[in-house]
Amino acid sequence: MQLSSLQTRLGKLLKQSASAHVYRKEVIELLRSVLSFDAACCTSVDPLTLLSTGAMTEEGLESIHARLLQFEFGNEDINDYNRLAASPHPIASLVLATEGKPEKSQRYLEVLEPGGFSDELRAALICDSACWGYLTLFRSTSHEPFTGDELAIVAALSPVIAHGLRSFTLTLPAASEAAGSSDEPGIIILSEDAKLVSWNHPAEGWLSLLREWENITEDYLPRPLLAISAKVGSGNEGNGKSARVTIRVPDGTYLTIRGSRLTDAKGGYGAAIVVEPAKPADMLPLLSKAYGLSPRESDIAELVFRGASTKEIADTLFISAYTVQDHLKSIFLKTNVHSRRELIWQLFTRFAAE
């Protein structure tokens, strides 16, 4: 099948898919029609933190998913996603990267090989210089490793998939689909091995919503919580003891999920996680990425939201009023609006929970 035909089919999937979860599932099925693999995971990520905002994980991977996340944040290894996302070549396979010696990877020795997998293809899904997701394909020990030609196919399709994942950041549901989620923050305590310990009543609603969105049962923790738990539990310097991700759920609400590391008297640790409706300050960086605003344009959009005049924006940013107007024209063009009032609605009001 021609690559152009595959790219066209991916575009049609975007129009036909009712949610990001459905889109991720259909993407995997389309890839399976041209590539051979035994399991797959397609993950959406917050482009600012690179933490999961939801994933489609096929059967056979759930048992190793948490361990893969722990390796992602707790151990430096070959083809880790943070480095792939920053690389000019964001697609790689384990066997090719190790020149046929996957045992050089601790992730392979401790997770993949025991799980029955001999190779792993990873793609950071990049659109307009931002990473919107990860695609991971696995091959079992009964199949040959991924080839360079197969990596080239994924490389050609990845920007189209990334564009699709980005699009769901800006898509609003039909009015009949709005769920009217609680405004109360959900508080969740996780153990060191990412098991639920305790939670308050609002957290039950948020957990149910997140599980429904990812089409997982109560036996599994939603991927954003798993990712945050792995991040704050990591011993790596630089990862810090806190993490945050902002996501859009199918009812149109934007959520902010924050996690902090907890330490007990015996030296063990866990995580305290808060789930709540996102504030404009949380939403703006994500929406700016989705609309392709430059850092300066994002600064100006934030000041517009705060009600600053053109002169006040110019004085705050130490630029001329003419430069402010030029930036505003560019912002209006990218967000398809014609005034400041429309801009505030486009970036914030239309996404607010009812």
UniProtKB/TrEMBL annotation:
Record's keyword annotation contains Transcription regulation: yes
Matching entries from Gene3D superfamilies are given as: Winged helix-like DNA-binding domain superfamily/Winged helix DNA-binding domain (1.10.10.10)
Pfam families with a match to the protein in the record: GerE
InterPro entries for this protein: Sig_transdc_resp-reg_C-effctor, Tscrpt_reg_LuxR_C, WH-like_DNA-bd_sf
Q: Indicate whether Protease appears among the record's keywords.
A: no
List keywords of the entry alphabetically: DNA-binding, Transcription, Transcription regulation
What superkingdom heads the lineage? Bacteria
Q: Name one GO molecular function term.
A: DNA binding
Cite the PANTHER family for this sequence.
DNA-BINDING TRANSCRIPTIONAL ACTIVATOR DEVR_DOSR
Q: What protein name is recorded for this chain?
A: HTH luxR-type domain-containing protein
This protein's species is Paenibacillus oryzae
